[in-house]
Write a structure and sequence with these properties.
Elements (H helix, E strand, L loop, with lengths): L2 E4 L7 H12 L4 E3 L6 E5 L3 H11 L8 E3 L3 H4 L7 H9 L5 E6 L15 E5 L4 H10 L3 E5 L12 H7 L6 E4 L9 E4 L6 E4 L10
């Protein structure tokens, strides 16, 4: 059964976040809130976590996983960003955007897109997510909590606990965080290509 953690949306309890971060380091798969919608998350190098996310969401190997980063300095360790792209991404973060960029060797090859050698990265504008990332001290490997054959992501922590009780290890809940996933922008060619229109205003990349 999944453990359920209810935290304050603006002042999340540090002891609770420390417990969740410890569980992630021990291999746990969690459901957690972001500034767009709930996501599934595990430790960056967790093969089991990756396989479980693929299984829950029925994903193939062409799916871009996302590294949820605390800040731009952390993001820069895991993707290659040239000067023009740097300015564009920096101006849009933190926020509801996911950026597809060439992965560095810090990213496990299992996470690379098989043809492009890219990975998704983002910096969330959400107090609980930021506090969890600060406690964890590294990016959280993530994917939107959108179940197969469903059009919208799950938005209520209690419902996630109820429906995914035996396939995730913990649910972190801080209230409703919306149903719209991030806007995805692919910068792997050096030019902005909008792959998915979502919560972040795509106009700045058109």
């Amino acid at each position: 059964m999944a453990k359920y953690f209810d935290v304050h949306p603006e002042n999340p309890q540090r002891r609770t976040l420390s417990t969740v971060a410890d569980s992630i380091r021990s291999g746990a798969l969690i459901a957690y809130p972001t500034d767009s919608c709930f996501a599934l998350g595990c430790q960056l190098g967790s093969r089991d976590g990756i396989d479980r996310i693929r299984s829950i969401r029925n994903l193939d190997d062409r799916h871009h996983f996302t590294l949820m980063c605390q800040n731009f300095a952390q993001l820069g360790q895991f993707v290659h960003v040239d000067n023009d792209v740097f300015r564009a991404v920096k101006a849009a973060t933190p926020g509801s955007y996911t950026f597809i960029l060439p992965a560095t060797k810090e990213v496990p090859r299992k996470l690379w897109h098989p043809k492009k050698k890219t990975v998704g990265v983002r910096i969330p504008d959400h107090g609980v997510t930021q506090a969890l990332l600060a406690e964890l001290g590294e990016p959280l490997l993530s994917s939107t909590l959108l179940l197969p054959d469903e059009e919208e992501p799950l938005t209520q922590g209690w419902e996630i606990k109820e429906r995914l009780d035996h396939v995730v290890d913990a649910v972190l809940d801080s209230g409703d965080c919306g149903t719209e996933p991030t806007t995805v922008v692919d910068f792997s060619s050096g030019e902005a290509e909008i792959v998915r229109r979502g919560a972040g205003d795509p106009a700045r990349f058109e």
